[in-house]
Fold this sequence. Notes:
- It contains 18 helices and 19 strands.
- By secondary structure, the chain is α+β, with helices and mostly antiparallel strands.
- 46% of the residues are buried.
Amino acid sequence: MSNGSQILVFKDMGLVSQVFDEASLGSLHGHIAVGHARYSTTGSSVWENAQPTFRATVHGSLALGHNGNLVNTAELAAMVAELPGEEHVSRSGRTAATNDTDLVTALLAGHPDLSIEETAKVVLPKVKGAFSLVFMDEHTLYAARDPQGIRPLVLGRLERGWVVASETAALDICGASFIREVEPGELIAIDENGMRSSRFAEAKPKGCVFEYVYLARPDTSIAGRNVHLSRVEMGRRLAKEAPVEADLVIATPESGTPAAIGYAEASGIPYGSGLVKNAYVGRTFIQPSQTIRQLGIRLKLNPLREVIAGKRLVVVDDSIVRGNTQRALVRMLREAGAAEVHIRISSPPVKWPCFFGIDFATRAELIANGMSVEEIGRTLGADSLAYISIDGMIEATAQPKDRLCRACFDGEYPMELPDPALLGKLLLEAEIKGGQQKPAVRGKPTSGSDLDGVQSLLGGAGAADALRRP
Length: 470
Ligand code: SF4
């Protein structure tokens, strides 16, 4: 938050409701602010990696929030290491941030001869991957989106101000009217003179299709298409592609609900509520450890025995990543008396890792990697399993196929990816643990053992496999 002469950063670990209360919000005074809830991607979940990231510059200070994930982190770390006076060790002596975002902040703050806006035009074309950025100095709010526009970013207007947000739903909540999307490759600056726009790269739109499937809020619209309606349409198409005789359609709440409504509508099978979600438990695949994830499933859902006993069920869910949720669910539904359990998934099998901000982890952990749909259905204990086709999913988004990233489903990445050794969530931690406080320049590994070391950070051969695909 900037009051015009000073930036105050207030951040901590935990849910937004655990970090902010009325007193802490009341202590923040000013006319420009950026806020961020981190979904851990590059860099582990530690306080230093919470955002906004902050740097002092010769012009003042800089605070930055980033949605997405970068793929040339090692290259950016090398660029930061060449900046004069860049120490990467905090005043307390602990290592500072180890995430990709902090590197962008350091680069934006690292050109004393240029203004922040001019620096952004030099630095942003060198940043590769998914980045929807909001950043600020004491006087100006900036927003920028990667040339592919992988993650959404929208511009809104209040009566006496401007708002930039990841999703249109955020504009609705704060009473702002939607103006337009921040364009892929666009840099926006907003100050007392109003809003100005410039372009730092040519737009090559490849929006993430998974935003429509699961990530975005249902009340958001992306590229003019409402997310809820896309999900209902995915369900309708799924019913046509994969019909089954059954008594009741239920959803895995809540992300499977719109597709289940669509499935019921198109199939003529009644829709019912068969599972109750504990509202206090978060989205399971965002939890960082497998143990918590497994506990999370039991904590998360409770079957309505009176509704499902004796019924042949169609259970609609938005995606299967590791399969743990669905396996536990099938068991739970059978224990509750379901006669049959048919699983229908409103996205195609996830077979490839995402490098752009979704922590699906490696191919080795993806249940659809190396198993047929039938085999997956058997391991889940379901009577049948079917997924929507890639084309069915894409048509439901009402977007042209060539303007969407769908790499986790078909392995066609929307940009060139660097050497597998230079990708990985804990890449910068590895550099520091290796005794080099400054991220070092890493070229291609020169020996097998070097590569093995970094491969182990990737948690398996999955990411490397993905990169070898033509
Ligand atoms: S790989 Fe999948 S989740 Fe990642 S950006 Fe592309 S479509 Fe989205």
